[in-house]
Design a protein that fits this description.
Helices cover 52% and strands 22% of the residues. It contains six helices and five strands; from the N terminus they run H-E-H-E-H-H-E-H-E-E-H. The protein has a five-stranded mixed beta sheet with strand order 1-3-2-4-5, sandwiched between helices. Strand 4 and strand 5 form a beta hairpin. It is globular and about 40 Å long.
Length: 152
């Protein structure tokens, strides 16, 4: 019995460790610093996490899969720009997210923008590499689209 409990704890721990490996920044300036240090572009996920059905579906079918986790760790810095209806955000995060929504002309959710970002004299500048939303076909189909942006 003890061996079964220990085995279950080890398995649960490995799932937890894998889930913790993916870090989604919410502060874009901090994400740009990481991006510049690692020489990886930003993957900015514009989402309505608690109300947008397609956003939730993209999370479930792609963004929370082992394939995406492995790809993201190797290729991008993750940034979540959330527009929730039921959960609270700080005024600073709301302002940042609204400004980025305006800057990128985001009209629908989910939208994923891949871009390089720089900060100069306190101003943030972006070089867009591409944008997409939900892509049917699971992680392989979605990653094929994202990889096309990275090759530019």
């Amino acid at each position: 019995m003890n061996k079964i409990i220990i085995a279950l704890l080890i398995i649960a721990g490995s799932f937890t460790a894998e889930a913790q490996e993916m870090i989604w920044e919410t502060n874009v300036k901090k994400a740009i610093e990481v991006s510049n240090k690692t020489k990886k572009p930003l993957l900015m996920f514009f989402t309505g996490s608690d109300w947008c059905g397609w956003c939730i579906r993209l999370q479930k079918e792609v963004l929370k899969t082992p394939e995406f986790t492995k790809w993201a760790k190797e290729n991008v810095v993750l940034v979540e720009l959330d527009f929730p209806r039921r959960s609270n955000q700080t005024a600073e995060i709301k302002k940042q997210n609204n400004e980025l929504q305006q800057a990128f002309g985001i009209q629908g959710f989910p939208t994923v923008v891949i871009a390089n970002g720089t900060t100069k004299d306190g101003k943030v500048n972006f070089e867009g590499l591409g944008s997409t939303g939900y892509v049917a076909g699971g992680p392989a189909a979605w990653l094929a689209v994202a990889n096309g942006f990275l090759k530019k």
